[in-house]
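I am still learning, so can you show me any protein sequence you like together with the matching structure tokens, please?
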Amino acid sequence: MENQALVILRDQVISIILGTVFLFIGLAVCGIAAMRRRSGERVLVWVGIWSAMYGARPLVESLVLVGGVPHWFQAGVPYLETVIAYLIMVVAALAWLELSRGK
């Protein structure tokens, strides 16, 4: 039993690490945007949300496969993955809109 769990965990290590890094970067950027509180800092908010969503999806998938989340959360993971998959393009478009506004 331990060998099976170790093999599954070994296959998911990269996804867990990258997901955690992108999630942390996204939350840090959103925190920086909240501290600055300027009207021109919306781009930081959108890029932060985009990065956090990009990191949350593989992180949640990996942790569910490993069994590192409670059972009640595992029931909602397919819905969470679907919501992230659809909304990530909307957030990316809003970030691109803020980045492409002319100066």
Notes: The longest helix spans residues 2-36. Residues 53 and 84 are 7 Å apart (CA to CA). The mean pLDDT is 84. The two ends are 60 Å apart (CA to CA).
